[in-house]
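Aim 2, interim progress. The first record below pairs a target sequence with its structure tokens.
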Amino acid sequence: MSDSDTTALLSPSVRYEDDEDEEQNNPPSTIQIREGHTVDPYFDDTVMHDSGLPVEANVNIQPTFNKKQEIKSKPAALRTDVSPENTNVQKVRMPIAFPNPLRDTEAPEYDPVTSAALSRYKYYKHLEKYSATNNGNPAAEPVLVMPDHMIPAKFYTILTIYQQTTGRQKSIITIFALWNTMMGTALLSMPWAIRMAGFANGIGLLIFIAFLMLYSAYRIMTCTKEMAHLGFVDFSDVCRHYLGQIGYIICSVCSLISLIGGMIVYWILLSNFLYYTVTYIYMKSTHQFNNSTQNITVLCPRNASVEVSSNFFFVDDDALQQKNDEFQQIWQLTKTVPFFLLLVLFPLINFKSPTFFTKFNSLASISVAYLIIFTIGKAAKWGINIQFSQPGESFYSPNFNTSFPALTGIAALAYFIHNCIIAIIQHQEKPENNGRDLSIAFFLVCITYLTIGVGLYISFPDDKTCISDNILNNLPLNDLWAVVARIFIFFQLGAIFPLLIYVFRIQLLHVTLKIIWPGLHWVILLNLVICALCIVFACFLPYIGKVIGYVGAFCGFSYALALPLTIYLISSYEKGTLTWPVVVIHVIIMLLGLANFIAQFFV
């Protein structure tokens, strides 16, 4: 450890002078050595013959002083300078303030352990000259340097060093990553969300919420960038800076809630897809499909607002009468399949690193592309089946429904990317294009949601109230389009679920215990608790529309709107650029987010 490092860690050096008159003309932290003075270099605290003041032993001074010689102190950064006024006087900076037993009568401020460490340090500095070269210059790597582990912890200071990284990510990659991340489970619920809001109202709300979420995401991006010089690399650090520890906790809790909500929705969908896929294979292998199934276009459950637990519109009547059929008793959507899913997923979620599952991210793009093709194919086959003038008639669709908060809750989660936006854009090759790329990504996401939601809604060949919150539940079990979609999305969600539970685990453990891997047995216990929560929802509340609405509305209000807009207002106030119109507009936006969350309880 160098003297300069020690100087930064310890208290300022004390200045010793051998003449009170000259004390006023010399800078602090110096001593003066006059010609003829001799210093014994083999003692820690030596005494000058004239003044009786101690001199640090690391100053290598010859016993017979020659004013033509340069007094050097190791390391080279602390070498002495000759005074231009008097060449007989040289100034040597004191690198550390050792207690002076001849002058200080009070007890030292350090505890015995620290005092012993300081004594060892002085001894090491005394021996350090033996690592120098024959010319008296310090060696490149001194062999007698006090080890770091022997330095008292109180002399260390933790500094955050910000290093600007050079990104190589093109704008097209950034846009695609943002689009791919936002495309999620809300795609399957978009036709139902438009039905709940009304046709025209639903389209308008999808566009409006896209603008709100884009603006809040932009605020997170800019405020984090402004604080980057302080080493802040995440939005939670910014929340801690402006709002204190409570802001950091709120930010972390909101992020965890969004993750646990996503895992619950994934478990419900995975159970659904596993149930229908296995049932299809079983009935296909046992030849239970009859010829009449070819004429079935869509299914209409009695209550379209809930999941279809079992649709037997497509099997032989004789098979329906077999109440004691062993397969039907074992394989039930909300009673047994969520537990069977645990056997499939649990071995995959206990890995220490999720690197293997990141290789399947391309499945998300394939699934979204397939759903777009699926929508175009079904719309072309079904045609346009919508009218606005005759209520009560087939295909009637109102332009406005009072249950529109169902759409706003789903849309809030559909556009939610705020907890990972910094990680996506941090390697951008041209950071000045981040705002443009973010806007393009949100535009593409909005177009994708409108294409799938509106396309399937206007072409649905039955009463619009039949549309389920999972559009695949409205298709017959032997519909090949639906079979392929379920298989694609099952593997996609199955690869993403371990990543979600991994991110949730490291965030929770880092905030609470300041560790990431507490041990395999603790990880297994935590994963069992999370899976048990998911199973409870899959068994007793298997309605992805409602779950997405609650989670999306809460995260949209807290993490996406309240936190970034509050921080923006505080930052503008500190800069002196805050105006009343800005305050009013941002407060209204936050109140809209709060109203959206409250309204979910009345849908």
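The second target in this work package is listed in the same format:
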Amino acid sequence: MVWTYTKSLWIVRDEITTSGLTQEHYDAGDDFTLYIHGLAQETEVEVSFIILPDGGGQPEYPDSGGILNDMDMTVTGTTASDGTLTISGVVSENLPYGELRITLPDYGYYLENAIILRNTEGHHVTVGEQDN
């Protein structure tokens, strides 16, 4: 159980989870749909995407834009009545290769404890162009 202070309210939520990702790696042009569950109902939420390079190190960000076409690295959306936020689009070109994670500042998830995105088989999700 998580106690969260957001927008002048204390909210008790079960664990925040993600679903919807079916691939282990997303290339430019791939369709991408992510569901984030366990958030406050019908509330505006800020989500930031982070790419951690293979082998660790500092986070990397695209030269311009965000993970998905027509979006920045930080996305703001409104949750549904069941507390789920849906983020979908097409993966951008020229992303650095690495493991994809998200932060939810309103819920206490920052860079140091970012949520690791996993596909339906439990594998870490990566994006970007891999050097061959």
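The first strand starts at residue 2 and ends at 6. This observation will shape the mutagenesis plan for the next reporting period.
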